[in-house]
Amino acid sequence: MKLQFPEGFLWGGAVAANQLEGAYQEDGKGWSTQDVSPHGVKTPPTDVPTEDNMKLIGIDFYHRYKEDIKLFAEMGFKVFRTSIAWSRIFPKGDELEPNEKGLQFYDDLFDECHKYGIEPLVTISHYETPLHLAREYDGWVNRKLVGFYERYAETIFTRYKHKVKYWLTFNEINSILEFPFMSGGIGTPKEKLSKQDLYQAIHHELVASAAAVRIGHEINPDFKIGCMVLSMPIYPLTPNPDDVIQAMKSDHNNTFFADVHARGYYPGYMKRFFRENGIEIHFEPGDEEILKHTVDFVSFSYYMSICETADPAKQIKGEGNLLGGVPNPYLKSSDWGWQIDPQGLRYILNAFWDRYQKPLFIVENGLGAADQLVTLENGEKTVEDGYRINYLKEHLVQVAEAIADGVDVMGYTTWGCIDLVSASTAELKKRYGFIYVDRHDDGSGTLERYRKKSFHWYKEVIGTNGQSLFE
After folding, report:
1. Mean per-residue pLDDT, 69-92
2. Residue 460 and residue 75: Cα distance in Å, rounded?
3. Contacts of 424 (CB under 8 A, 6+ apart)
4. Most buried among 175, 289, 419, 468, using CB within 10 Å?
5. Close Cβ partners of 120 (under 8 Å, ≥ 6 residues apart)
6. d(CA 89, CA 130)
């Protein structure tokens, strides 16, 4: 059987405002949680932004977006996923009126996309809660954030109702379990945060997400609004039933978020978890009705799979496994210890499709590597990143297999289509892009852009609607 991608498949790339825009205080922008996180997710935030934070300049996309969008168009992008920096629109997060200069920037950015026939796919909140909301309200622990988020969402839905069709409410919403400050703007240190407060914060996010779906559909019924979760197939380490049950329990931690978004209610296994852990979620009047406003599609990131075991002697966390789990002895790992499992992508696509029967969108997938810029005989500078091409090809073949399985896949956007600052480590040496940016972790570099070998490869993939993958 010939593998193929459907007509109209949305090929493109993905970024986040806080990792590439820079201009962290220009045109009225307020500080975000990212501005005080100079070393990634594993170190405490600073009091104020410090010069060693690579994200303050990023790759200067704020001033160079026209140049970069032109390069994306050269590759043939059908869609470009980016986020709106909440603190550009509402600098503190709790104002009554938005910042016009911030709104205008995204007007200009989306216009530039449409100039080349590229559809924006916009994440409303991508790890960049206004810092004031974290410091003053303890982030999403506080119910007031639901109202602040609704005002923000309504503002951008109204402003861009004719420019943006595809929306995501929260980026990798389930990552709040491990990274409450980055993901949920929660100022209380993780080790002091109670399960009660954590899951109440999650409830507030879920209500806000559903409210955004309701608001968005009222403003423009043609909007397609999705959730976005960090997906990670979880395999039992052995066939021992204890390991299988352990894998199931671990998987519930992640599927819970998509279940509520796609089904509109809390699943029974989470109600049991709450009972057994003394957690009582406070529902405001109307919350149950709000949650019934389910998403139009389910989107997710995919980088790795993990294993789980009930055997304490084997519970050795993998080096790169951000959300726990133990290494799979059958898989190789990236330079950062992330286990590479292309077939896991087919597996998770089938699992989500069987579970939700809603269109799926792979909005992050890619390989972070320490790329080396070289000069060819003709004087052209590039990166010979055959390893990235192999990684992406192996994953895309598995997407085609899932489509052949009957899964409805809307599109695929590679993560970090242009080099940007890593979210997990705040490094620039961990590069994902098809486009090399001459900036380094010591702050040096010209910020010039260079096409990598993978740039030309992806251009051909898009140009043939994926057929070049099978030649």
Report:
1. 98
2. 8
3. 40, 41, 42, 322
4. 419
5. 79, 80, 81, 82, 109, 110, 113, 163, 164, 166
6. 10
| 439/420 Cα distance (integer angstroms) | 9
The dihedrals phi and psi of 369, each to the nearest 5 degrees, come to -150, 160
Q: Residue 115 is encoded by which pair of tokens?
A: 């100039």
Tokens of 277: 């852990």
What is the set of domains in the chain, with CATH numbers?
A: 10-470 (3.20.20.80)
Range scoring the smallest mean pLDDT among 61-65, 327-331, 393-397: 327-331
- Nearest Cα neighbor of 287 from 171, 225, 229, 209 is 209
Mapping DSSP to helix (H, G, I), strand (E, B) and coil, where does residue 124 land?
Answer: strand
The whole-angstrom separation of Cα 129 and Cα 182 is 8
b/e map 139-160, b = 16+ CB within 10 Å: bbbbbebbebbbbbbbbbbebb
Answer yes or no: is pLDDT of 158 > 60: yes
| Coil vs helix vs strand at 336 | coil
315: amino acid identity, one letter: Q
Please name the residue that has the structure tokens 């598995």. 398
Polymer length in residues for the chain: 471
Helix 241-263 and helix 342-356: axis angle, to 10°?
Answer: 60
Residues 350-402 have pLDDT tens digits of: 999 999 999 999 999 999 999 999 999 999 999 999 999 999 999 999 999 99
5 to 186, 341, 398, 403: CA distances (angstroms): 41, 21, 11, 7
Lowest mean pLDDT of 50-59, 211-220, 317-326, 333-342, name the range: 317-326
Active site residues per annotation: 364
